[in-house]
Amino acid sequence: MKTTDMAITKALQEVWEWKEAVYEDTKNMTYEETRAYFQKGLEDAARLLGARIVKNPDGSCSFV
C-alpha cells in the first residue's frame, strides 16, 4: 500500500511539517552552522526537560 492510499494521521503530518521546517532552516547553512543549529536544539531540549546531556561511548547523547 502506498502512502497516498492510506489515511495520514495528524501525528505523521506534524512530523512531516517539522522535518520540512528543519530542512528550510538548514538548507543554506554550512556544516558548522548546521552542527551548531542541532547542538542548540539539543541544549534547549535538555533545559526544557531539566536534564543534562551525557555523551555515550558510541558518540550518541542521552539526557540524565
Mean pLDDT: 92
Order of helices and strands: HHEE
How are the strands of the largest sheet arranged?
1-2
Task: Pick out the low-confidence regions.
Answer: none
How would you characterize the overall build of this protein?
With 64 residues, the chain is mostly helical. Helix content is 56%, strand content 9%. It has one domain. The chain contains two helices and two strands. It has a two-stranded antiparallel ribbon. The chain is extended and about 40 Å long.
How are the secondary structure elements laid out?
Blueprint: H1 10-26, H2 31-49, E1 53-55, E2 61-63
Antiparallel strand pairs: 1-2
Keywords, separated by commas or semicolons:
64 residues, mainly alpha, two-stranded antiparallel ribbon, 2 helices, 2 strands, 56% helix, 9% strand
